[in-house]
Amino acid sequence: MNQHLQSKIALNNGVQMPWLGIGVFKVEEGSELVEAIKSAVRHGYRSIDTAAIYGNESSVGQGIREALHENNLAREELFVTSKVWTVDLGYESTLAAYETSLNKLGLAYLDLYLIHWPVAGKYKDAWRALETLYQQGRVKAIGVSNFQIHHLEDLMKDAEIKPMVNQVEFHPFLTQKELLSFAKKHNIQLEAWSPLMQGQLLDHPVLKEIADKHGKSVAQVILRWDLQHEVITIPKTTKEHRIIENASIFDFELTKDEMDQIDALNQNRRVGPDPDNFDF
């Protein structure tokens, strides 16, 4: 399982997605972000996750171009994700939003395009647009974000194509057991955003004890826990030492007992909005 940083999982359409990527939520446009992308690629990352609402696709694109050039990589060697924001959910508007994201990123295609939030009455039209982009070969894989089981069931009633990924808040205080087992049953790959709960878990005593046993940091233990649950993870950071640290999770394994201990920390507690009750 997950032998190295460039290990991948085959999505339900056969496209290969790296287990670990870098997220750029709340990182502003500018040189810090460009350097973070370049640093991540230099240290072996091959997956980058952004979104229209982050307002940083231009810098992400610049970072990607410079990283490809400096590391002598082909575009195909990177896996790039973006997401359509709530105001653009609709058939034509989602198609237009995809073009806008591509233009800002300066890319010819995305590897994964997601519906960012399940806005009632709107996500089915947006999904039709994603299906169109996929059928036209404009995007390699399509999926959703922040969808609960009932959203997925509702979407799949009418969908021609099943989502390949569901990116959700997932960490030891929000273990999403039912959602994870539903996703596995339907061959939808779960992906964790905010895996470190925006830093709130980094001094948790149970996690510290496990980390000390392995000579690892709490962050490394949590990210390893994601992987052993077969959940893709995209920790956000711009600091080079964290980029390196977050990737050093392939040289140890948590025991079943340690996995159970971490699972037992669940409080169904979110740091982000509730997918059943948001107003944007």
TrEMBL record:
Q: For site (Lowers pKa of active site Tyr), what residue positions does UniProt give?
A: K83
NADP-dependent oxidoreductase domain span: 31-266
Checking InterPro entries in the record gives: AKR (IPR020471), AKR5G (IPR044500), Aldo/ket_reductase_CS (IPR018170), NAD(P)_OxRdtase_dom_sf (IPR036812), NADP_OxRdtase_dom (IPR023210)
Q: Which PROSITE patterns match?
A: ALDOKETO_REDUCTASE_1, ALDOKETO_REDUCTASE_2, ALDOKETO_REDUCTASE_3
Indicate the residues that form the catalytic site: Y54 (proton donor)
Q: Give the domain of life.
A: Bacteria
Family designation: Belongs to the aldo/keto reductase family.
Name of protein: Glyoxal reductase
